[in-house]
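Dear Dr. V.,

Thank you for agreeing to look over these. As mentioned in my earlier message, I'm a first-year student in the group and I'm still getting used to reading structure tokens, so any feedback on how I've presented them would be very welcome. I ran two proteins. I've put each sequence directly above its structure. The first is here:
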Amino acid sequence: MNYPIMYRIRQTIDAPKVDNIKDRVIQELDSLNLASRITPGDRIVITAGSRGINHIDTILKQVIHVLKSHKARPFIVPAMGSHGNGTAPGQLEILKSLNISEETMGVPILSSMEVKQIGVSSHDFPVLVDKHAAQADGVVVINRIKPHTEFEGPIESGLMKMMAIGLGKHKGCFEVHRQTVNFGYSHVIPEIGSIILKQIPVLFGVGIVENIYDETACIKACLPDQFYETESMLLKKAKIYMARLPFDKIDILILDEMGKNISGTGMDTNVIGRIMFVGEKEPNTPKITRIVVLDLTKPSHGNAIGIGLADFTTRDVIDKLDTQAMATNAITAMTPEKARLPVSLATDQAAIEAAVQTIGAVAPADARIVHIKNTLEMGTLHVSHAFKKEMEKRKDLMLEKEIGALSFNANGRLSPVKDLVIKNK
């Protein structure tokens, strides 16, 4: 096949960055006057999700440090709905992969799928939360604020979702998602989150925003009555800073990897322009004819929910799947479509060639191909010659070098995209 010439380019987008994570966390928590809100000896639970948030271990440790300085007794609970195959050991394993363990954090981690009903929604569904959170003297909610993968609204994926779905464990997550099919995420998540805020002793929240380079752009602490307003404000920032593909019309998008640590749907639907959720409108852009996924991240633990958004993959990816974990996630989230399996072929080369063969009346050398590491890290990417004229007119794109025709090694593997950003530690 006559493969197109590829170029390595860099997106030059405004990307503010928090230089000192530890100091920023302390500054934010100092602004809350916690001394007046914490009684020595209080058992305070801190939420820890499954999402791959940069520096989440550092942020958690600093929150723990501050709480201990007020003589509280903090502990962690996994707040990730049905992830980890909907089991307590599975959720502990996910946290461990994020460097969150009793050894690294210095506090207990109480992982249980038991929940307590604390209320009823306006649609007469039970509102459920982790039993340890329901029994604690205080709850600290920590999450990244970002666009949701299945809807748009004033608040999407963040603190309210962490409470409504994450703290709901498997059972609560299921009840929330049942309602979203009929009444919509934009109504259900804020309502359930508000009920939880009223019924359990939420102490404060910490919202995190990341930039296109997967770096921490903003950390903001807020009190319970500020959750909605703060999250809405941070979501606007997140949409400005979020990773986006630089082109709207693409023949083939190649992803080196997908995974639960990258997005709840493995690859961010806001990036690829495919949602596939009942009742939600598909995005107008970008328009991508074929999507090829070449690997599944290790922290996904075999859960490739969202692979149904792709058209082609490899047998190596299929061999890594934990289909039970995928089924649990897909059924709980009411998205069986996202667990469908794309066409799988023996190698990267075979999968990409199949994609090229199914884009219509386009010569392979002229195909509009974009190759990215994943939908979270897109500062550096590889693009085909078909984009060259457009790139030369764009101030937000820097052409770093020509890397030659799309090529594969003797085993049919494609060399991955390597981001040159040095992240702060």
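The second protein is here, in the same arrangement:
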Amino acid sequence: MQERIITKQIDCVKKFQCILAEGWLPHTEFLILDEINKMPQWKTYLKGIYDTKLPHQKILVTGSARLEIYNQAGDSLAGRFFLHRLLPLSPAECDKVGVSYTLDHFLERGGFPEPFLANDLIEANRWRLQYVDSLLRVDVIDFENIHNLNAIRLVFELLRERVGSSISYSSIAEDVAISPNTVKKYIEILEALYIVFRITPFSHNIARSLLKEPKVYFFDTGLVKNNDGIKFENFVATCLFKHVLSKIDYQAENYALRYLHTKERHEVDFALVHNDQVKEMVEVKHADHIPSPSLHYFHEKYQIPAVQVVKELKRERRENGIEKIQGLHFLRSLAL
């Protein structure tokens, strides 16, 4: 392990020297810097380029999730960049670029380009095994000095089985034999590396709301270990989250993705929140077309627009103010 770390450090130094030796002509209009966060003092270097660039020049900095993590410490780049988060493929994006797909293909392969476009399922699974191993052995170590890799791998595996349910840090801690605070820390690391994302309950202006622990979903639906209904819920979550981030990154709007839960056990899977107000509720079902009682409760009490998204639905309709929409139709309608 120590030899591998030293080798990586040497490689980084070599890349740093190569980048410093690079140059471009004054009439160059577009500079692309990829994975620059691997270079020592990369923010100082980038600030220097930005502050001395000519007015017509534009800079695109690309990289993994670690680029955003490393930007949170050290010298500030405030006022010098706009953040654009690139999430896995979705039906709405595939429609834009003309890529053919089926909903079942998304649920089987996930939205990452490599498994999604793989020639067969074996090739997709081979990519995923390597992806997970790299995440847990390389990315996690690069991010923070984790001594118990086996524990964070166990947390990762347990999360794969508990998608869509509120996560109990204490319950996972008992299963893994670590503290609840350590479980929370590990989940935050997985979240920071864009492996999972958390959805917390919404409480503002919802009477008798209950602040519960978050629900966790995977960016890669192919990692979910559960039935088709949970896989579909995870995929809807990723598409909704992508929709929300596009509102934030591209339109500078104050959006968030939450879920609803009260002390009376009324719960709705997702709530699209704009300026601290719930604008739309979304309940996800695999084949059940009967309106969710909780969805009906929130709609009647708070007059919040409500949608029940059903993967297997023969006929779309509106019933008691609640829209029942076929899953693929709904996902294709999400603006990016």
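From my reading of the second output: Strands lie at 30-34, 58-62, 196-199, 215-218, 255-261, 267-274, 277-285, 306-310, 317-319, 322-326. Residues 228-251 form the longest helix (24 residues). Does that match how you would interpret it?

Kind regards,
E.
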